[in-house]
Amino acid sequence: MKALVAAVLIAAAPAAYAQEAATAPGATLRWLDKTTGQTDDFSLSRGQSVTRGFITIRLDECRYPAADPSSDAYAHLTIMDTRASTPVFSGWMISSSPALSALDHPRYDVWVLECET
């Protein structure tokens, strides 16, 4: 009986946690130079890029829960080191868990603060 109850709860969990996402036209990001301690908050529109130090950051998309726009933002970023030919990061970053999918760069950190709705 306990196994049946557990199976029903596990099967129902994805539906309970599924949220409809909305796409935002832009995002606010934060950049940190770990060597100098310099930080900068900046806004990007979808498809726009900015260069800070040796890295170029492009916002591909920003999404947020449609039911709660001030909630968790997640953005797809492509980050290039200007001295390399391949991206140093390409993927989704989540504002509430920046370490979950983080830029692995010896000098710079980048994280998502919010989607701009």
How would you characterize the overall build of this protein?
The protein has 117 residues and is mainly beta. It has one helix spanning 2-17; strands spanning 21-24, 26-33, 39-45, 49-52, 55-65, 74-81, 87-94, 108-116. The protein has one domain (20-116). The protein contains 1 helix and 8 strands; from the N terminus they run H-E-E-E-E-E-E-E-E. It is globular and about 40 Å long.
Architecture blueprint of SSEs:
Elements: H1 2-17, E1 21-24, E2 26-33, E3 39-45, E4 49-52, E5 55-65, E6 74-81, E7 87-94, E8 108-116
Antiparallel strand pairs: 1-5, 2-3, 2-8, 4-5, 5-6, 6-7
Shape: globular
- Give the number of DSSP strands: 8
The structure class reads mainly beta
**Beta-strand content bin:** over 45%
Rg measurement, Å: 17 Å
The rounded distance between the terminal residues' Cα atoms is 47 Å
What is the total number of structural domains?
Answer: 1
Low-confidence stretches: 4-16
- Largest pleated sheet: 5 strands, antiparallel
Quick recap of the structure?
The protein is mostly beta strands. Helix content is about 15%, strand content about 50%. It has one domain (about 20-115).
Keywords:
mainly beta; three-stranded antiparallel beta sheet; 14% helix; globular
